Input
Amino acid sequence: MDRNEDDFIVGGYRFATIADAETARMEEKKVDNLEKHLDYRQPQNVLLVYNRALDNKVFLTPVGFTYLQRMQKEMVKWGVPADKIRPVPLYGTFSNKTENNSSIRKSFAARHPKIEYKGRFITSVLINVILVLLVAAMLAVSWRSDVPNIVNYRRTVVDEYSQWEQELTERENALREAQRKLDNAQ
Output
């Protein structure tokens, strides 16, 4: 599917992925819904909605963060003390500098434990080797079996026909011998 450049742009921001752009579009709908139902003249209700939005991580993109900043400004405008308005938490880093980001890295490492792939790889290889050996053993048993199967059916059938041919040859020879004796006796 060919994507248009406009598919990545939402609310004046160009997103790196379609999924992020779709999240931002959903946030635009949430903002529109809140704008319809929220009365900024009641600052305690606005503060309650604001705090719940922060606690539940309702907004994850710059579109939502912009709306949260607008809510902050409206609350200050309507008399909510600045110390009661929590800052908007950002869940990412914006520079590649290593200055004192150890606490962020530690919290990320705590949330995303490192998976030991080497041990899993060795276990997987061992299991695969065991399975290959089992298949080889099954083929060996099938090959040596006297019962016709998909592995040895041709050999078994040829052996059976050659045995019948030998028996028929022996019977023919015995019959000819008996016929000769009968002809000589007469």
